[in-house]
Amino acid sequence: MSRIGRMPVAVPTGVDVQIKGSLVKVKGPKGEIEFSFPAEMEISLEKGEITVQRPSDERTHRALHGMTRALINNMVVGVSTGFEKMLEVNGVGYRAEVSGDNLMLYVGYSHPVVIEPPGGITFEVDVRTRQIKVIGFDKQLVGQIAADIRKVRPPEPYKGKGIKYLDEKIRRKAGKTGKV
User: Fold this and answer.
1) Whole-angstrom Cα distance, residue 59 to residue 47?
2) What CATH number does residue 95 fall under?
3) pTM
4) Shared-domain flag, residues 102 and 124
5) Hey, which bits of the chain come out as E strands?
């Protein structure tokens, strides 16, 4: 059995879970998410725990088993505590700021790059450390928005200028060598 798939998902207090066939709706203090899972997976809610069962040991069912459980866990964690991704802006004159709800990036272009947050996503910027925090209850959406922000000016390997994840290590290259 899948080690991930067989673990039950604990539902904390304040989180409401509704299961109708393969459709799972999770509602909590941070927001509401619904997702339709493959019909083969049997999802049940008993005594404050969600369990996922698979019909057979076929390769596709084994893969779906762990994935379904992980997605349900991300939904429950997202609506109860939320997710966040940290990015860092490096470079002389590079900066980020929040204007209303929008994120304004000044990263070496002739104009500021404006990123509008979709529903459920908020931005926080620490101007002193030049860090951007993407906060939301949908793990996939938080990761995608963080990747889109990084894509505006990816870090370059020579000076390390650009937008990178906080825990990302940039492999540095040696520059040109002068004539001897």
Assistant:
1) 30
2) 3.90.930.12
3) 0.88
4) yes
5) 9-10, 16-20, 23-27, 32-36, 42-46, 49-53, 83-90, 95-99, 102-106, 113-115, 121-126, 131-136, 162-165
What is the helix (H) or strand (E) element at residue 140, kind and residue range? helix 139-152
Q: In terms of Cα–Cα distance, which of 71, 83, 64 is closest to 138?
A: 83
User: Are the beta carbons of 37 and 22 closer than 8 angstroms?
Assistant: yes
Q: Give the position of tokens 């370059």.
A: 156
Query: Are 75 and 100 part of one and the same domain?
Result: no
- Nearest by Cα to 85 from 131, 130, 120: 131
pLDDT band at 1 (very low <50, low <70, confident <90, very high): low
> pLDDT tens for residues 21-32?
889 999 999 999
pLDDT mean over 146-156: 96
End-to-end CA distance of the chain: 64
Q: Which two tokens stand for residue 178?
A: 């002068």
Domain extent, residue 131, equals: 83-165
Q: Residues 129, 92: one domain?
A: yes
